[in-house]
Amino acid sequence: MKSFRNLLILAAGSYAAGLALYAMFNAYVGLAVPSLVMLGIAPILKRAGRRQAADTQGEAVTAQRQAPPAAVQAAPSAHPSAPPAAQPAAQAPGQQSSEPAIDDPELAAAVEYIGILEDMILLEGEKNSLDDEIVQKTLSLLARVNRLVPDLVALGDASINYNIVRLIRRDINSAINPFLRLSGEAKRQNRRLLLDGIKDINSKLTFYTQTIEQKDIMELRTKAELIQQRYRLDD
Questions:
Q1: Rounded to whole angstroms, how far apart are CA atoms 142 and 148?
Q2: Hey, how many other C-beta atoms are within 10 angstroms of the C-beta on 11?
Q3: Residue 131 has what pLDDT?
Q4: Rounded to whole angstroms, how far apart are CA atoms 34 and 188?
Q5: pLDDT of residue 93
Q6: Is the separation of the CB atoms in 197 and 175 below 8 Å?
Q7: Where do the record's region annotations for Disordered lie (predicted)?
Q8: Do 212 and 160 contact (CB within 8 A), yes or no?
Q9: In 3-state terms, what secondary structure has residue 80?
Q10: Cβ distance 212 to 144 under 8 Å?
């Protein structure tokens, strides 16, 4: 910086001397002095610029070498990375659902509707809009239908499936939904109608349950006869 300051002072002095010579002689003499001075100091300025650039680059390299390691590089040694999270254990065979999948879309939709009715009954019971007897008997009916569905799926009888879907959408729905829309006093006056409807639907479910049971008995007898015939032939 000191050398640059001296060169600037020299350039300013040559400019002042050029002005004085211009006033005393002519323009050519006045321009000659600053030009000669600038030609003389140009190589000096060039060498000084190179030296300053080299010094700056050297300081940067030194600072980079003396700087501590980056935080990202130091992190593994200071805090070892945690092991990857373990994958969830596979569900044990005993914990897997044994209920067969419902392939019939109509039956699946009817089962979903049973769940909606259960939520509605529970909500009305919490609001004391239904008495305990209606809540218990209605939920018992809906739970019985849910328990019957896996047997229907295993049986694979399209006719019985159709009848169960119709029972849910027509009979159960027409018994429960209109009653839920009644006012409090109307519910108390007509509660017996709902209870009688639930009783009739339970009787119909008993018929379907017995039908499924009879089919199971027939299947069991058929398989038992086949087993007996096989062992008799082996003997």
A1: 10
A2: 15
A3: 92
A4: 118
A5: 43
A6: yes
A7: 55-101
A8: yes
A9: coil
A10: no
What tokens does 193 get?
Answer: 């109608």
Question: Which helix or strand (DSSP H or E) is residue 95 part of?
Answer: none
Ramachandran sector of residue 224 (left: φ over 0; alpha: ψ -120 to 50; beta: rest): alpha
Phi/psi at 131 (5° precision): -80, 165
User: How far apart are the C-alpha atoms of 35 and 68, rounded to whole Å?
Assistant: 51
Q: What is the DSSP letter of 92?
A: P
Q: What is the rounded distance in angstroms from the CA atom of residue 26 to the CA atom of residue 68?
A: 65
pLDDT under 50: residue ranges of the chain? 54, 58, 60-62, 64-65, 67-97
Structure confidence at residue 231 (pLDDT) = 78
- Whole-structure pTM value: 0.51
Contact 142, 117 (CB under 8 A): yes
Please state, as a whole number, how many other Cβ atoms lie within 10 Å of the Cβ of residue 86: 6
Instruction: Please tell me the distance from the alpha carbon of residue 168 to that of residue 201, in angstroms, as a whole number.
Output: 9
Give the DSSP letter string of 149-198: HHHHHHHT-HHHHHHHHHIIIIIIHHHHHHHHTS-HHHHHHHHHHHHHHH
